[in-house]
Amino acid sequence: xxxxxxxxxxxxxxxxxxxxxxxxxxxxxxxxxxxxxxxxxxxxxxxxxxxxxxxxxxxxxxxxxxxxxxxxxxxxxxxxxxxxxxxxxxxxxxxxxxxxxxxxxxxxxxxxxxxxxxxxxxxxxxxxxxxxxxxxxxxxxxxxxxxxxxxxxxxxxxx
Length: 159
Known about the structure:
The structure is a single chain. By secondary structure, the chain is an alpha+beta fold. It has 6 helices and 4 strands, in the order αααβαβαββα. It has helices at 2-31, 43-48, 60-68, 83-98, 114-117, 144-158; strands at residues 73-78, 103-107, 125-130, 133-139. It has a 4-stranded mixed sheet, with helices on both faces. The longest helix is centred in the first third of the chain and has 30 residues, at 2-31. The termini are far apart.
């Protein structure tokens, strides 16, 4: 009886180890060639790789370069595990496209140094930089009308 329990336990351990290996390998294969330039991505990020609302990813180095060059840009800071982000992004991304806004997206789950580096207190956060400096921002979920006004105000200021 004891032998059967040990054999059964060993089989279960082997099955779980095999499942963990297959899952990890599959996630690494999905993560190859991703816009994050990382070999290991959080599973929630992997789920968003093909979602059209989560394209136009900006990496911290690229953002730092643009800010250092004094460029104007709009950045959406989000986390794939943020419930409010998952509600806002499918509204915000198409709205930005319709208005011709080049909306860069920074994934703070993958680049958690961005929280302190860019003074982000919560997600979602939308920030517009003018001449490489903070111009205006929206923290938390907003209405489509508020986002539209936000984008239009920046466009008017930039002209």
